[in-house]
Amino acid sequence: MSLRQMEYFVTVVQEASFTRAAETLHVTQPALSHQIKALEKSVGGALLERMARGVRLTPMGRAFLPHAELAVRSAAQARRAARATAGAEGGELHIATLHSLAVGVLPDVFARWRTARPRVLLRLHEYATTEALEEAVQRGTADLAFGPEPADPPGTVVPVGEEELVLVVPFDDRLAGRTTVTLPELAGRAWIRCAMEPVVHGARFLDWACARAGFTPLTAVWTEHTSTAVRMAAAGVGVCVAPAHIVRGAVGEDCTVLSPDPAWKRPLAVYARVPPAGAAEAFVDLLCTTWSALGDLPPRSYEDCRPAAVPVR
């Protein structure tokens, strides 16, 4: 069994066709078929069922596929890491993160990176939830992930700082002029909810937090993206919860930002399956420096990451 054979197998599955896979791989179809047959002989059974139109996985193929995908991605990561480590020049880095962090934090980081290391290509993979982000890292989709500190670390975890969640209301709201608010004060208000809302103890965060405050939130609108929810809140549709960096950095100041009392914070980290080196290590350093410049100093230890008030996962 060889890495090339696994790469061929994964490509056939992705293309659902030997013909299209051969074109993608720039090999002849007989050569591709020969390598797949050799792979099937190595594993001891058929991995693909040849159909009149395309192919489909056999039960053995379905069991084999995720391991083959991981091997192929890991090899690609190894090649990228080797090239990018050479003085942090050349090669590319794949960065995975949540959409809210991609919008609110990473533009400044990427801009600084392009100025310092223009020859290292950055590829950004965005995800809606922490679960999807962590799964992508486990699959080897990216070299580094930036998001909430993972529940089950895949390998190396570097704490970056704390993300504060704030409440957004219109600039002419009755609460305008205040800096903090307790959740029970918002019991009768309508809310803008987002599909990217964090999950706490098996429930969406706002449902969980409001239940602890003694009420059920009245949902006015569901949105797909946090930035959309903030815009809706600024227009007066309802109250929304959003990371502070989204409101201050990406959306603007046409709204009032309130800090919940007690505060809502969650630790952020960069994590990867292997220790960052070369360009990856330089990117982690730049991210920590940029976060510090935003006013959220990087913590000194994992204990410093733990929120003292309401934990948000």
List strands and helices in order, with pairings:
Layout: H1 3-15, H2 18-25, H3 29-43, E1 48-50, E2 55-57, H4 59-85, E3 92-98, H5 99-104, H6 106-116, E4 121-127, H7 130-138, E5 144-148, E6 156-170, E7 180-181, E8 190-194, E9 199-200, E10 203-204, H8 205-213, E11 218-223, H9 226-234, E12 239-243, H10 244-251, E13 255-260, E14 264-272, H11 279-293, H12 302-305, E15 310-311
Parallel strand pairs: 3-4, 3-5, 7-13, 8-11, 8-12, 14-15
Antiparallel strand pairs: 1-2, 5-14, 6-12, 6-13, 6-14, 9-10
Helix pairs in contact: 1-2, 1-3, 1-4, 6-11, 9-10
User: For the CA atoms, what is the radius of gyration?
Assistant: 23 Å
Secondary-structure element order, N to C: HHHEEHEHHEHEEEEEEHEHEHEEHHE
Portion in beta strands: 25-35%
Quantity of strands, as a count: 15
Derived from helix and strand composition plus strand pairing, the structural class reads: alpha/beta
Task: Output the number of helix runs.
Answer: 12
In whole angstroms, the N-to-C terminal distance is 41 Å
Query: Main β-sheet, in a few words?
Result: 11 strands, mixed
Shape: elongated
Low-confidence residue ranges: 296-313
What portion of residues is helical?
40-55%
